[in-house]
Fold this protein.
Amino acid sequence: MTNFLQYETKILILKRSSKVGTYQGKWAGISGYIEKDDVNPKMRAKIEIFEETGLEEKDIKLVKEGTPLEIIDNEKKILWIVHPFLWDVSTDEIKIDWEHKTCKWIYPNELENYKTVPRLIDTLKRVL
């Protein structure tokens, strides 16, 4: 799944670190794998937000759960099923973990200026 955090009129993007398994150095939302024991994608989405940003339940509010989309990475020969989420957050103070080098708040229309994970703009469009 991919989470987009929204603070006022900006969204959070994060630059993936060299310690992650895929797409090092690319900009992304807060992403993670849905695990077998997860109740649903929304539950896993919240866990990833808490782990990767230091935010808590009181800091986030679901705005929209978008229709999942298939993303084919021909280079890596992987098919991703991405469940997109948009969350309002009560603060712009983020404490990134080891999965990211840095993060920044941008206007959604600025996303095209960044080297992102595959089809991040399409994923964002599902929740805007």
